[in-house]
């Protein structure tokens, strides 16, 4: 059986620092910090509980990040 691949390490970053930023600024900064995927969602969006390594999620209201989490 083939060995399981080792997932890449998460970027060394603090997701809370994006809260309050404009979505464009937050996305640009997250990509510069090494996040492979940045997903923006309106409040209350129904999403799966699937964890994706290297993904940062932004909940956005009125063009500002109101919540941020990894996965």
Write up this protein.
This protein has 71 residues and is an alpha+beta fold. Helices cover 14% and strands 27% of the residues. The protein is built from one helix and three strands, in the order H-E-E-E. The chain has one helix at residues 23-32; strands at residues 37-41, 55-61, 64-70. Strands 1-2-3 form a three-stranded mixed sheet, with helices on one face. Strand 2 (55-61) and strand 3 form a beta hairpin. The mean pLDDT is 92.
Main attributes?
single chain; 71 residues; alpha+beta; 3 strands; globular
Annotate the secondary structure layout.
Blueprint lengths: L22 H10 L4 E5 L13 E7 L2 E7 L1
Parallel strand pairs: 1-2
Antiparallel strand pairs: 2-3
β-sheet strand percentage: 25-35%
Mean pLDDT, rounded to whole units? 92
- Overall, the morphology is globular
Helix count equals 1
Give the CA-CA distance, first to last residue: 28 Å
Q: What is the string of helix and strand elements?
A: HEEE
Identify the quaternary structure here.
single chain
- Secondary-structure class: alpha+beta
Radius of gyration: 13 Å
- Main sheet overview: 3 strands, mixed
* Low-pLDDT windows of residues: none
Structure summary, number of beta strands = 3
**What is the helix fraction of residues, given as a range?**
10-25%
**Largest sheet: spatial strand order:** 1-2-3
